[in-house]
C-alpha cells in the first residue's frame, strides 16, 4: 500500500503544480496586485482537493478500463464462497418519515431473500427517532406491514422517547439492548434500497474475512421523476464509480464508511464505536467517518465494495432540499477538526477525517478566487489579459476538479454495453453535456450557501439536524427568491466587475459565475413538474434502471449466488 499511496501523492502534487504554473502565466502580465495575490493564495488552498480528485479519477479510470474484474482488482476480499449465512439484523433508522415510502422497498428485499431461500437468516428492525405525536401512526404502519409478512415475528419496531446521540445513538441503543442474537447488522437509511444479491455480496465478504468490521457498498441514485435529482444522480453515478474504484485501490482495508448500505460486524462496532462528545459537550453529528477511523485504530478493517449493482438511495427532490442536506453534512464534517487528535487513530484514519473536511473546507476559497478575480478585473481593466493562458487554465482546472465524473462519462462512452444501458450513445452524450452544465451552475449556487453556513458556524451558530423532505415538489418563484437572493445579487456584482474589463474577461467568467445570476430560475425550473415529465418521456438523463433494453432476469437460486466465485 505504501507504493500506491506514494503514487497518489505524486499525481496530486503534479496536478497542483501544473495548474499553479498555468495560473502564474495568467496573473503575471501587468504585475502583481493584492487581488492577484489573493487569487494565488485561494488556489493554493484548493489544490489538495483538486489533486486528490485527479488522482482518484486517473487511477480508477485506468482500473476500470484495463482490469477484467475491476472490483477484485481493488478490494482485498478473499475468494472463499459463503457456505452458511450468519444471523443478520437489517437495521433501518428513521425519523419522521413517510412510511408509505420506507416500507415497500423493505418488503421487496425480504421477499427476495425468501425466494432465494435465505430469509430465515435476517430480522428487520425499524429503529425510530420520530417525535411522540407521530409515533402511534408510525407504529400502526409497521404493525400492518408485519402482519402481511411470511414470518411476522421477524419484523420489529422500536421508537426512542429521546433521540440522544442522533443516528449513532439510535444504532448503539439497538446494539446494546436488541442485537444479542445477531453477528452482523445491515445498516439502511429511510431512503435506502438494496437487492438481495447486493446484501448477500456484503455478507459473503465480511463473513469470509474475519478482520473486517465494515464492508461499505457503493450506492447510486434511485430513478427519479423531477429534473433536479435526475440530473444530479446522472453525474454522481459516473463520478462515484470512478472515484470509489481509485480510492479503494490505495486505501485497501482502511477505507471510509458512509453510514448506510453497509454490513457491520456487531461485536467490534459495539465495543469501539461509542462516540465521545466534542470538547464543548455537543454530540458528534456526522458519525460514520469517525466510526470507521476508530475501528481502524482498533485493528479492524473497513473496505468499500465499488459495485453499483443493487445498492441505491433517493436524492433530494429540489435545490432547497439539496442545499439543506449539504449544509447538514458540512456542519457534521467540520466537527472533525476537534477529533483529529483523538487518541488511537491510525494515520489513514486521521486522513479520512481530513479528507471529509476538505470536501467542504475549500468551497469558500473557490468563491474567494472568483471575487478576487472580479476585483482584479474591475480595478485594472487595462492590464494585459493572457487570454490563451486563461483559456488553458479554465479547461484544466475544472477538468481536474471534475475528472472523476468526466472520466466516468468517457468510460461509459468507450463501452458498447454500458452505452446501451443508458439508451445509446446519443442519449447518454446529451445527458452528460446537460448534467455538466447543470453542475457548473449548481456549484456556484452551492458555494455561496456553504460559505455563509461556514461563517455562521464560525461565529457560534448551532447546527441543525432536521428531518428531510424526500417527496417531489415544485418550487415557486417567491420561495426561490427568498432563498437565493444573495447568490443573485453577488452574481450581478461579479458580472459588473468583469464587464468593466471587457467581453473577453466576461466570457472567461461566464461558466463559473452564471449559476449565481441564474440561481432563482435554476431552482424553479429544475423542480417544475412539466419539465420533469418531459425528461421522463424522452428518457433524458435516464439511468440504466429506467432503460428497458434488457429483460429483467429471473431470481438466481441462492446456491448459485453463494458459490459463483468458484466458477470464476
Question: How is the secondary structure organized here?
Answer:
Elements: H1 2-27, H2 34-66, H3 70-74, E1 88-94, H4 99-115, E2 122-128, H5 135-147, E3 155-159, H6 166-177, E4 184-188, E5 192-194, H7 196-208, E6 212-217, E7 220-221, H8 227-251, E8 262-265, H9 266-272, H10 288-297, E9 301-305, E10 311-313, H11 319-334, H12 347-361, H13 363-379, H14 387-401, H15 403-413, H16 416-421, H17 425-458, H18 477-501, H19 503-517, H20 519-525, H21 529-538, H22 558-563
Parallel strand pairs: 1-2, 1-4, 2-3, 6-9, 7-10
Antiparallel strand pairs: 4-8, 5-10, 6-8
Helix pairs in contact: 1-2, 1-14, 2-8, 2-13, 2-15, 4-5, 8-15, 8-17, 10-12, 11-17, 13-17, 13-18, 17-19, 18-19, 18-20
Structure description:
The chain has a domain at 2-68 and 360-546. The protein is α/β, with parallel strands linked by helices. Residues 549-568 have low confidence and may be disordered. The protein is built from 22 helices and ten strands. It has helices spanning 2-27, 34-66, 70-74, 99-115, 135-147, 166-177, 196-208, 227-251, 266-272, 288-297, 319-334, 347-361, 363-379, 387-401, 403-413, 416-421, 425-458, 477-501, 503-517, 519-525, 529-538, 558-563; strands at 88-94, 122-128, 155-159, 184-188, 192-194, 212-217, 220-221, 262-265, 301-305, 311-313. A seven-stranded mixed sheet has the order 3-2-1-4-8-6-9, with helices on both faces. Strands 5-10-7 form a three-stranded mixed sheet. Helix 13 (363-379) packs across helix 17. Helices cover 60% and strands 8% of the residues.
Amino acid at each position: 500500500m505504501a507504493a500506491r499511496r506514494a503514487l497518489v501523492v505524486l499525481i496530486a502534487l503534479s496536478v497542483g503544480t501544473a495548474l499553479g504554473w498555468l495560473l502564474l502565466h495568467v496573473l503575471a502580465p501587468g504585475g502583481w496586485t493584492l487581488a492577484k495575490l489573493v487569487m494565488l493564495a485561494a488556489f493554493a488552498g484548493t489544490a489538495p482537493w483538486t489533486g486528490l480528485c485527479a488522482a482518484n479519477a486517473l487511477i480508477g479510470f485506468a482500473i476500470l478500463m484495463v482490469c477484467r474484474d475491476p472490483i477484485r482488482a481493488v478490494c482485498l476480499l478473499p475468494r472463499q464462497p459463503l457456505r452458511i449465512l450468519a444471523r443478520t439484523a437489517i437495521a433501518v433508522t428513521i425519523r419522521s418519515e413517510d412510511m408509505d415510502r420506507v416500507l415497500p422497498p423493505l418488503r421487496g428485499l425480504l421477499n427476495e431473500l425468501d425466494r432465494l431461500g435465505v430469509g430465515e437468516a435476517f430480522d428487520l428492525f425499524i429503529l425510530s427517532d420520530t417525535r411522540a405525536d407521530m409515533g402511534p401512526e408510525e407504529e400502526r404502519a409497521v404493525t400492518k406491514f408485519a402482519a402481511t409478512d411470511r414470518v411476522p415475528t421477524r419484523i420489529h419496531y422500536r421508537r426512542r422517547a429521546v433521540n440522544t446521540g442522533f443516528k449513532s445513538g439510535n444504532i448503539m441503543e439497538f446494539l446494546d439492548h436488541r442485537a444479542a442474537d445477531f453477528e452482523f447488522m445491515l445498516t439502511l437509511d429511510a431512503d435506502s434500497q438494496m437487492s438481495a444479491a447486493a446484501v448477500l455480496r456484503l455478507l459473503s465478504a465480511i463473513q469470509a474475512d474475519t478482520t473486517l468490521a465494515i464492508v461499505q457498498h457503493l450506492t447510486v441514485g434511485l430513478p427519479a421523476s423531477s429534473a433536479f435529482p435526475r440530473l444530479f444522480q446522472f453525474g454522481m453515478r459516473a463520478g462515484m464509480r470512478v472515484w470509489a474504484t481509485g480510492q479503494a485501490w490505495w486505501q485497501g482495508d482502511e477505507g471510509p464508511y458512509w453510514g448506510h448500505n453497509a454490513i457491520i460486524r456487531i461485536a467490534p462496532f459495539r465495543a469501539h464505536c461509542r462516540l465521545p462528545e466534542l470538547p464543548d459537550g455537543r454530540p458528534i453529528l456526522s458519525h460514520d467517518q469517525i466510526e470507521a477511523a476508530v475501528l481502524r485504530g482498533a485493528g479492524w478493517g473497513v473496505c468499500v465494495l465499488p459495485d453499483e449493482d443493487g445498492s441505491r438511495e433517493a436524492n433530494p427532490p429540489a435545490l432547497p432540499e439539496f442545499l439543506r442536506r449539504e449544509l447538514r453534512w458540512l456542519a457534521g464534517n467540520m466537527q472533525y477538526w476537534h477529533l483529529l487528535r483523538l487518541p488511537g487513530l491510525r494515520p489513514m484514519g486521521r486522513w479520512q477525517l481530513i479528507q471529509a473536511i476538505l470536501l467542504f473546507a475549500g468551497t469558500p476559497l473557490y468563491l474567494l478566487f472568483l471575487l478576487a478575480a472580479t476585483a482584479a478585473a474591475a480595478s485594472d481593466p487595462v492590464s494585459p489579459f493572457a487570454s490563451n493562458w486563461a483559456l488553458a487554465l479554465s479547461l484544466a482546472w475544472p477538468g481536474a476538479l471534475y475528472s472523476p465524473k468526466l472520466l466516468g462519462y468517457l468510460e461509459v462512452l468507450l463501452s458498447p454495453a454500458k452505452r446501451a444501458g443508458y439508451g445509446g450513445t446519443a442519449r447518454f452524450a446529451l445527458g452528460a453535456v446537460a448534467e455538466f452544465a447543470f453542475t457548473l451552475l449548481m456549484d456556484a449556487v452551492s458555494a455561496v450557501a456553504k460559505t455563509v453556513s461556514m461563517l455562521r458556524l464560525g461565529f457560534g451558530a448551532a447546527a441543525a439536524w432536521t428531518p428531510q423532505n424526500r417527496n417531489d415538489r415544485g418550487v415557486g418563484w417567491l420561495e426561490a427568491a427568498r432563498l437565493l437572493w444573495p447568490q443573485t445579487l453577488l452574481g450581478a456584482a461579479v458580472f459588473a466587475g468583469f464587464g468593466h474589463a471587457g467581453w473577453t474577461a466576461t466570457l472567461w467568467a461566464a461558466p463559473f459565475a452564471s449559476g449565481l445570476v441564474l440561481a432563482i430560475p435554476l431552482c424553479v425550473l429544475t423542480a417544475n413538474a412539466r419539465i420533469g415529465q418531459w425528461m421522463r418521456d424522452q428518457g433524458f438523463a435516464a439511468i440504466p434502471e429506467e432503460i428497458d433494453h434488457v429483460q429483467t432476469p429471473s431470481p438466481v437460486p441462492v446456491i448459485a449466488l453463494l458459490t459463483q466465485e468458484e466458477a470464476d
